């Protein structure tokens, strides 16, 4: 199908567009922000947003859309920004993405839409992520709900349970509520948002934004139930057979921390990234004693890993007052899976990077608290299947360094609760739920998507999986009604 | 009788039989673990290991030394510094892979020692070197799997 070109509102001649510089986003000073938990990026101004939008050269074949896992109509919303119709632009994004204020902040645009932006071949790509964030924030603050309004459908009389209120679950809830189904989200924690609330720090994603997105879903009729552990409080079978839910979506995420299995990981002061970040983000340990959860304030914290979770943890440790907060990563910076922006911000904030180093033991004192880490220096060997060069230990390179806190951020696995309580649902050897492309699991009426299926991935990929599952669930629910009729 | 004398007094077929026996023991150990495993995923992982050792055993049964040309794989040493888990019915896939990789490593070292010991006996040296490389290859495959799944560093 040939896509209709959006109406152009860009009055800047094509040649001049190429001379406009990519707009930098204002941000807090690094030496100030490394002592507070306020958001680092401050967002584009309206004038900057229009100027950035005017950089778009309106490609006939907009590759940016292919780079987006939920195929946001990027050229269309950019043209609306050129026309200063910011609320219209937000509405356009919301046709495909119900959480633009979140995705505008945490999506790795540089490896998705912006990576394939045609401008990027010779110049810097259009800052699509910054524009998405700008219009989402603008609409949130100025539209009084108009950006989220939609024609309320006839109620379908069918009930859908969504397990987990992370990005996949929220995406499914939004799409199925628009179809008229009665949607209830069950959340195990006492706040909604899943990894968005317990995993991502306030300085990257303010919780107030998330609460507004949840409130928007509540306003369209989605029911939220917290402190409810599916598999403990009630099983999936009970939800379906006793509570009358016609379909269930499992979006539990990958919240089971993984450890390295080296000696000393059970010492005091050694945390999983999951625990450390949950204490800080969800339980607001950084505000102790105003909030109840204590969080150890280290002198020298090391964070083992090189992904976004590691960056979040090390920047949190720095903000908690660590004199030295270091990333310990067994490969080189080139192989780090973290976003460049996060690495750049961490460095600006004074985080130290110890690359090509791997801990092999944590050493404790007589109180059982960690006081040192025994490490090896690594060198890069042949590339692995992912193309990253493999680190191998250097001979006679062992050394010991003093540390009083360690955070392990080497990845997460899936929570085994569902597979333990619902054997009808097939899981793979890693414990992830087996689902087809549309999210169908081996149990009738039960769908799944996001990290619980794919393993740890990005927010937008989880949302994409949720949206695909929502289409399949809607078809399933309609067919179910049809078969009764 | 020392080790060298012991092996020198054996025919090549006897040495092969000894190695086949070693592989059979591994198959039996993994079968026992599989039967004790309390979840399906662990049973599947042990089944994979049984199949891997069975392939090895069959290769030994059909062994012809002149066909040995493979180069040894790189030793990634990913699991060398990890704690060895205790075999139980509650093992996670992560623990099973560590256990198996450590077993392969120990066996590879044993064959390597034998190859070094018989440095001047061409047939025995080649045979034990091949066995060491084969075990190291298994370890390499297990560690690659471990790296891909458990060291995502996200």
Describe the protein.
The complex is a heterodimer of chains A (485) and B (154). Chain A is α/β, with parallel strands linked by helices and 485 residues long. Chain A has three domains: 14-148, Fumarate Reductase Iron-sulfur Protein, Chain B, domain 2 (Orthogonal Bundle), CATH 1.10.1060; 159-255 and 414-484, FAD/NAD(P)-binding domain (3-Layer(bba) Sandwich), CATH 3.50.50; 259-412, FAD/NAD(P)-binding domain, CATH 3.50.50.60. Helices cover 33% and strands 16% of the residues of chain A. Chain A has 18 helices and 16 strands. A five-stranded parallel beta sheet of chain A has the order 3-2-1-4-16. Chain A has a five-stranded parallel beta sheet with strand order 6-14-7-8-9. Chain A starts with 13 loop residues before the first helix and ends with a helix. Chain B has one domain (11-65, 83-150): Ferritin, core subunit, four-helix bundle (Ferritin, Up-down Bundle), CATH 1.20.1260. The chains are: A alpha/beta (485), B mainly alpha (154). Chains A and B meet through helix 14, strand 11 and strand 12 of A and helix 3, helix 4 and helix 5 of B.
Poorly predicted ranges of chain A (pLDDT <50, ≥5 residues)? none
How many domains in all of chain B? Answer: 1
The helix content of chain A is: 25-40%
Q: Assign the structural class of chain B, choosing from mainly alpha, mainly beta, alpha/beta, alpha+beta, or little secondary structure.
A: mainly alpha
Radius of gyration over C-alpha positions of chain B, nearest whole angstrom = 17 Å
In the predicted model, the low-confidence regions of chain B spanning at least 5 consecutive residues are: none
Please state the second-level CATH architecture of the largest domain in chain A: 3-Layer(bba) Sandwich
Beta-strand share of residues of chain A = 15-25%
CATH topology of chain B: Ferritin
Mean pLDDT of chain B equals 84
Tally of DSSP β-strands of chain A = 16
> What gap, in angstroms, lies between the N and C termini of chain A?
35 Å
Full CATH superfamily name of chain B: Ferritin, core subunit, four-helix bundle
Order of helices and strands of chain B: HHHHH
């Amino acid at each position: 199908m040939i896509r209709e070109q959006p109406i152009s509102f860009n009055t800047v001649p094509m040649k001049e567009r190429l001379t406009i510089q990519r707009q930098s986003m204002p941000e807090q000073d690094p030496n100030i922000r490394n002592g507070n938990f306020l958001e680092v990026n401050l967002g584009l101004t309206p004038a900057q947003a229009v100027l950035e939008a005017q950089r778009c050269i309106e490609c006939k074949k907009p590759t940016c859309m292919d780079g987006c896992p939920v195929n946001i109509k990027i050229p269309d919303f950019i043209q609306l920004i050129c026309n200063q119709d910011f609320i219209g632009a937000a509405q356009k994004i919301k046709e495909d993405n119900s959480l633009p204020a979140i995705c505008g902040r945490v999506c790795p645009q540089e490896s998705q839409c912006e990576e394939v932006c045609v401008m990027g071949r010779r110049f810097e790509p259009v800052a699509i992520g910054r524009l998405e964030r700008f219009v989402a924030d603008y609409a949130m603050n100025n539209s009084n709900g108009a950006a989220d309004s939609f024609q309320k459908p006839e109620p379908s009389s069918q009930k859908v349970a969504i397990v987990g209120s992370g990005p996949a679950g929220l995406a499914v809830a939004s799409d199925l509520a628009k179809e008229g189904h009665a949607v209830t989200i069950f959340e195990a924690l006492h706040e909604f948002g899943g990894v968005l609330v317990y995993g991502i720090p306030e300085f990257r994603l303010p919780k107030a934004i998330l609460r507004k997105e949840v409130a928007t879903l509540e306003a369209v009729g989605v029911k939220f139930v917290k402190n409810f552990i599916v598999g403990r409080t009630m099983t999936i079978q009970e939800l379906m057979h006793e509570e009358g839910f016609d379909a269930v979506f499992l979006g539990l995420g990958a919240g089971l921390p993984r450890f390295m299995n080296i000696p000393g990981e059970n010492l005091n002061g050694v945390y999983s990234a999951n625990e450390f970040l949950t204490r800080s983000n969800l339980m607001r340990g950084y505000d102790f004693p105003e909030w109840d959860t204590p969080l150890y304030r280290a002198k020298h914290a090391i964070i083992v890993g090189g992904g976004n979770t590691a960056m979040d943890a090390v920047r949190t440790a720095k903000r908690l007052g660590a004199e030295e907060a270091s990333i310990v990563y067994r490969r080189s910076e080139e192989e780090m899976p973290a976003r460049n922006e996060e690495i750049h911000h961490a460095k600006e904030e004074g985080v130290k990077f110890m690359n090509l180093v791997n801990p092999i033991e944590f050493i404790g004192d007589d109180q059982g608290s960690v006081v040192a880490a025994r490490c090896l220096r690594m060198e890069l060997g042949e590339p692995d299947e992912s193309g990253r060069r493999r680190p191998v230990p250097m001979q006679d390179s062992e050394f010991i360094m003093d540390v009083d806190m360690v955070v392990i951020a080497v990845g997460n696995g899936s929570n085994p609760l569902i597979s333990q309580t619902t054997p009808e649902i097939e899981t793979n050897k890693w414990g992830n739920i087996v689902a087809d492309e549309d999210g169908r699991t081996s149990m009738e009426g039960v769908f799944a998507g996001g990290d619980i299926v794919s393993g740890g991935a990005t927010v937008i990929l989880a949302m994409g999986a949720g949206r695909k599952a929502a289409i399949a669930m809607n078809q399933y629910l309609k067919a179910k009604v049809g078969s009764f009729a | 009788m020392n080790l060298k004398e012991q092996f020198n007094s054996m025919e090549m077929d006897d040495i092969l039989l000894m190695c086949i026996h070693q592989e059979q023991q591994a198959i039996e150990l993994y079968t026992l673990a599989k039967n004790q495993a309390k979840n399906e995923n662990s049973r599947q992982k042990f089944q994979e290991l049984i199949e891997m050792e069975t392939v090895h055993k069959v290769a030994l049964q059909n062994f012809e030394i002149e066909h040995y040309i493979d180069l040894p794989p790189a030793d990634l040493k990913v699991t060398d510094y990890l704690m060895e888990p205790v075999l139980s019915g509650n093992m996670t896939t992560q623990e099973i892979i560590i256990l198996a990789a450590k077993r392969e490593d120990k066996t590879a070292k044993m064959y390597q020692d034998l190859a070094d010991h018989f440095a001047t006996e061409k047939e025995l040296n080649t045979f034990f070197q091949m066995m060491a490389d084969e075990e190291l290859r298994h370890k390499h495959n297990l560690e690659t799997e471990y790296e891909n799944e458990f060291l995502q560093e996200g």
